């Protein structure tokens, strides 16, 4: 008996009917890792490991989906998965699972080679990037890009009321952007970093450390200032049609974070 005959002989429980009349919005697999490659703005290719979440919508009359097909799709692409193949892979997923809607997330570390402000030494800094693609009713495709940018924020109130120095902290600025044309990851990172009290670097010499300390002190920002300033930069870019901007400041004088969000639907 060949494999096809064996498969036909085994009951396909997932495809059996369900009588509860309750469709499922998302069903699939979560947190599966797979190699990917990502083009960077300098013309290079970064080979990295991405974590995938893969879901489809399940009609009310189907008992379950075929979970193995999600893994088959990833393995079929082997090392060819890239930002450029993201939409086609999502459409293949929806077709293979016989679904009307689908949702695909790909999260990966992305590295930018940064130059220290004074010494000019170069070092890599990592950013958390997520591509989210969706097939909605009507076979329409939409994609968003989310990037988490670490930065420095310095408290304006602390600076104003203190005789010696001001407290500062590391912040995570998160941009989730929907675009009408291509935008480099580096461009979104720059929009966030330019609005912080100071950006971060992987490697600093003493002259650089002096610079970033004084830069932050001369550029104090509340968490509210950061999200407003980043939103202003996004509003000025005609390629960005919708966004969410978040900032979380990991407070150095509290055991809690400060947080703010602006959304343009």
Can you walk me through this structure?
This protein is α+β, with helices and mostly antiparallel strands and 265 residues long. The chain has 2 domains: 88 residues; 150 residues, Urate Oxidase (Roll). Helices cover 26% and strands 40% of the residues. The protein has 7 helices and 9 strands; from the N terminus they run H-E-E-H-H-E-E-E-H-E-H-E-H-H-E-E. Strands 1, 2, 3, 4, 5, 6, 7, 8 and 9 form a 9-stranded antiparallel beta sheet that branches. A hairpin with a 6-residue loop joins strand 8 and strand 9. The longest helix has 13 residues. It starts with a helix and ends with a strand. The mean pLDDT is 91.
Identify low-pLDDT runs: none
Cα distance, first to last residue? Answer: 56 Å
> Which CATH class of the largest domain applies here?
Alpha Beta
Q: How many separate domains make up the residues?
A: 2
What would the average pLDDT be, to the nearest integer? Answer: 91
By CATH, the architecture of the largest domain is named: Roll
Describe the largest sheet.
9 strands, antiparallel
State the helix count.
7
- Strand elements, count: 9
Structural class: alpha+beta
What does this entry show, briefly?
With 265 residues, this protein is an alpha+beta fold. 26% of the residues lie in helices and 40% in strands.
Characteristics:
single chain; 265 residues; alpha+beta; Urate Oxidase; 2 domains; nine-stranded antiparallel β-sheet
């Amino acid at each position: 008996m060949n494999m096809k005959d064996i498969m036909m002989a085994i009951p396909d429980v997932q495809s059996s009917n369900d009588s509860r009349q309750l469709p499922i919005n998302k069903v699939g697999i979560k947190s599966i890792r797979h190699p990917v490659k990502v083009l960077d703005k300098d013309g290079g290719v970064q080979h990295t490991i991405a974590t995938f979440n893969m879901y489809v919508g399940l009609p009310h009359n189907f008992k379950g989906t075929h979970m193995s097909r999600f893994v088959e799709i990833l393995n079929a692409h082997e090392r060819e998965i890239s930002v450029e193949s993201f939409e086609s892979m999502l459409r293949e997923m929806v077709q293979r699972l016989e679904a009307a809607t689908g949702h695909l997330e790909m999260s990966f570390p992305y590295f930018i080679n940064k130059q220290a402000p004074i010494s000019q030494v170069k070092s890599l800094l990592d950013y958390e990037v997520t591509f989210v693609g969706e097939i909605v009713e009507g076979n329409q495709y939409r994609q968003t890009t989310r990037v988490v940018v670490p930065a420095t924020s310095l408290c304006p109130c602390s600076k104003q009321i203190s005789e010696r120095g001001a407290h500062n902290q590391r912040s995570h600025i998160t941009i989730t952007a929907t675009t009408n044309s291509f935008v480099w990851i580096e461009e979104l990172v720059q929009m966030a970093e330019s609005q912080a009290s100071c950006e971060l670097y992987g490697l600093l010499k003493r002259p650089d450390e002096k610079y970033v300390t004084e830069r932050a002190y001369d550029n104090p920002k509340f968490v509210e200032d950061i999200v407003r300033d980043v939103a202003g930069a996004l509003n000025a870019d005609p390629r960005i049609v919708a966004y969410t901007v978040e900032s979380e400041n990991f407070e150095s004088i509290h055991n809690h974070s400060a947080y703010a969000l602006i959304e343009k639907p």
